[in-house]
Write the structure tokens for this entry.
Amino acid sequence: MSILVVAEHDQQQIKAATRVALAAASAIGGDVDVLVAGEGCQSAADAAAQIPGVSKVLVADSAQYGHALAEEMASIVASVAPGYGHIIAATTTSSKNYMPRVAAMLDVAQISDIISVESPDTFKRPIYAGNAIATVQSVDSVKVLTVRGTAFDPVPAEGGTASVEPVGVTDEVGVSEWVKEDVVELERPELTAASIIISGGRGMQNGENFSLLELVADKLGAAIGASRAAVDAGFVSNDM
């Protein structure tokens, strides 16, 4: 059984969330390949090849993948999917955009945000905003999965010796275009990858009181989160 993990990267390095997805792939068992799609992403591919447990790194290097547009990413992932029993990505903003498209193109159901591997076809995932855990068994020939970024300990970043191979670039879909990126620089860990999170809700009463959480977060090296109610009330913004 072969597994394909789609890498999240910045063209230079593989992000930690992908190493969490690789830990989930290891729990499933079988040969694990990594797809690195981007523009000028050879350094990221070389970094992926150093991750233990990776058998092969597939590189799709083209301008059309440079900004991970959903249609282009779905196209390349679906094109290399034949022969794999599992297609896996970390649960990120980017993968939430293209992985459902991959599942639709393969005519299978996606299982999102898994937190446990019970067997190669059975997984646990949170439902009802985390108030319950569902055990889901898939009978699809290909399992399309996303992995919660804190559910598994990430595999090491170094120690592997995987081969690196180019793959053919797909025809450009061309139904969307990149306009710009507004990046918010965070001094604290990313919320999706943080090991400690300090979160506030409506009980904070106003946005000014969130500064109290910042003091605690700075002491613990934690990320800061907020409930949907606090965001909707205007206490904090979505990009905090």
